[in-house]
Amino acid sequence: MNAGAYRTSDPLLLLASNTSYLAELVLPWLLLIPRTRSIAIVATVSFLAMVEAGAREVFFGVLFVNLILLFSKKNLNRLLLPVSLLLYLVSVASQTGILPDWGLN
């Protein structure tokens, strides 16, 4: 018996939902352990990219990736600063009408 617009029993959607909340619980802890940190950075950024692509959010995603990259041994924030700035500029230009509105937040 399904009730409500967002209730489902589809196995793939349940797998995606459970994987999502488990990733949100486990990945932060893996960032704290030096041996698992590099894998956790890649996994967290990949997970965030998938979530933000569905949500069509740029601002939070870029900010969060920059915070995650603080765990890296290398200074990846300095290296990727032009990419972050470009994504912010595209988002602002889209919201102000300079570029087409892609529905990005």
Strand-helix topology:
Layout (H helix, E strand, L loop, with lengths): L10 H22 L4 H19 L3 H10 L7 H21 L9
Helix pairs in contact: 1-2, 2-3, 3-4
Describe this protein's structure.
- This protein has 105 residues and is mainly α.
- It has 4 helices and no strands.
- It is flat.
- The model has no long low-confidence stretch (mean pLDDT 87).
Short description:
With 105 residues, the chain is an all-alpha fold.
Class computed from helices, strands and strand pairing: mainly alpha
pLDDT < 50 runs, ≥5 residues: none
Order of helices and strands: HHHH
Largest sheet: none
| Multimerization status | single chain
Q: What is the count of DSSP helices, taking H or I runs of 4+ residues?
A: 4
| Tally of structural domains | 1
Could you list some keywords that capture this structure?
single chain; 105 residues; 4 helices; 69% helix
